[in-house]
Design goal:
Elements: H1 2-19, H2 24-28, E1 39-43, E2 58-62, H3 81-95, H4 100-117, H5 121-138, H6 141-157, H7 161-177, H8 181-197, H9 201-217, H10 221-237, H11 241-257, H12 261-277, H13 281-298, H14 301-317, H15 321-337, H16 341-357, H17 361-379
Antiparallel strand pairs: 1-2
Helix pairs in contact: 1-17, 3-4, 4-5, 5-6, 6-7, 6-8, 7-8, 8-9, 8-10, 9-10, 10-11, 10-12, 11-12, 12-13, 12-14, 13-14, 14-15, 15-16, 16-17
């Protein structure tokens, strides 16, 4: 009993330190205990190019309604720096924009990508706004649209839904004015995802349905699967889990057929959430496990975090404590390997809570102290 009281006192003291005066990104970590399904999936749909003739990477954002109630999901994945470089090089070749201004804008986009990978979303947004201004000045419409995507995704992760919606509506307007069908699909899907977060389900459904129609018109399985997956999010938000499961299953098949493994993993995570919501724990473990395998193979840590968080809930619900601990340790290892301090903090908090529930107060105290040290680094770098 004495050990329990001491552990509780340590927990209260450290948690107070962790959350006092922290950056907004840190404060959101407390809310990540539910079933928020956030994924900005970067893929390269086979056989589909932009009007400029270059293969584009695309970002599709998917949230599920439980986020509003407090949820548990990894941070939104963005393009890795190398892929940002490829996007930039391809755009430069095809649109003819050259010179110091263009180089500076590209540099700022890369810096933003690096900051995002480290979990510093505020800094990433700042860099991307600077790049956006330059792209506007030199008339690079395609880069403007892409950068609005990045800004919208970052604001979505920070739960600044008004700013995210504004960015995605601007991105959609750019795509429509440029008659960029692919850009319209991305803009519609991202916009619809934010509308879900704002509980505007009818407009979200309409938006995703339009994206689905365009993706079918261009006969692209990956984009069709992405739009179907997002329609599944609307169904899940309305607690129609049977319909959501059917949509997710169809979407996963299409994304696999369209050679979109990361998109498939995102949809499998959505499927795991739907099964978890109706207490079909075995099915949820299967879906999350499949998503985790793909994410491991593709080295997609953000999707790994989300799959692990789902698996943790499922195994904890059926009392599989050993597997629960293994998953949390894997989560911390990934966070360290990717040098993501925000995810290291969350992993240590989850480990501390696990040890505390198991009565291992010494291990819980160690985890809380490690979390406190990281929190101080994030608060005062």
């Amino acid at each position: 009993m004495k050990g329990k009281i001491i552990s509780q006192q340590i927990k209260q003291e450290i948690v107070k330190k962790i959350y006092s005066g922290l950056h907004p990104v840190m404060l959101h970590l407390r809310l990540y205990r539910g079933s928020m399904n956030t994924a900005a999936i970067q893929t390269k749909p086979k056989g589909f190019t932009s009007l400029a003739g270059k293969p584009l990477y695309f970002l599709l954002l998917g949230f599920s309604a439980p986020l509003l109630l407090g949820s548990s999901a990894p941070l939104i994945p963005y393009p890795a720096t190398d892929n940002l470089n490829q996007q930039i090089d391809n755009i430069r070749i095809n649109n003819g924009t050259q010179g110091e201004s263009r180089d500076e804008a590209d540099r700022l986009v890369r810096l933003g990508g690096q900051q995002q990978q480290q979990g510093n979303l505020e800094k990433a947004i700042s860099y991307w706004w600077q790049a956006l201004e330059i792209y506007h000045q030199i008339g690079d419409v395609e880069a403007v649209g892409r950068t609005y995507d990045f800004i919208g995704l970052a604001n979505g992760e920070l739960r600044r839904y008004s700013e995210a919606e504004d960015a995605f509506r601007r991105r959609l307007a750019v795509a429509r004015s440029n008659k960029d069908l692919q850009g319209q699909i991305f803009g519609l899907n991202n916009l619809g995802s934010i509308l879900i977060e704002r509980q505007n389900f009818p407009e979200a459904r309409t938006t995703f349905t339009e994206a689905l129609a365009i993706s079918r018109s261009v006969r692209n399985f990956a984009l069709e699967g992405a739009s179907l997956s997002n329609l599944g999010l609307v169904a899940a938000a309305e607690k129609d889990y049977d319909r959501a499961i059917k949509l997710y299953e169809a979407a996963a098949t299409l994304r696999r057929r369209g050679n979109d493994p990361l998109g498939e993993a995102n949809t499998l995570n959505n499927l795991g959430d739907a099964y978890l919501a109706i207490h079909r724990y075995s099915d949820s473990i299967g879906a999350y496990g499949a998503a985790l395998l793909i994410a491991r193979e593709r080295r997609a840590p953000k999707i790994q975090f989300r799959a692990i968080d789902g698996l943790v809930k499922a195994h904890a619900s059926v009392g599989r404590n050993e597997r629960w601990l293994q998953l949390l340790q894997e989560r911390l290892a990934i966070a360290k390997e990717t040098e993501n301090l925000h995810q290291q903090l969350k992993s240590l908090q989850l480990l501390a809570e696990f040890y505390h529930k198991q009565g291992n107060y010494a291990a819980a105290a160690r985890a809380y102290h490690q979390a406190s040290a990281i929190a101080h680094i994030l608060h005062d770098p």
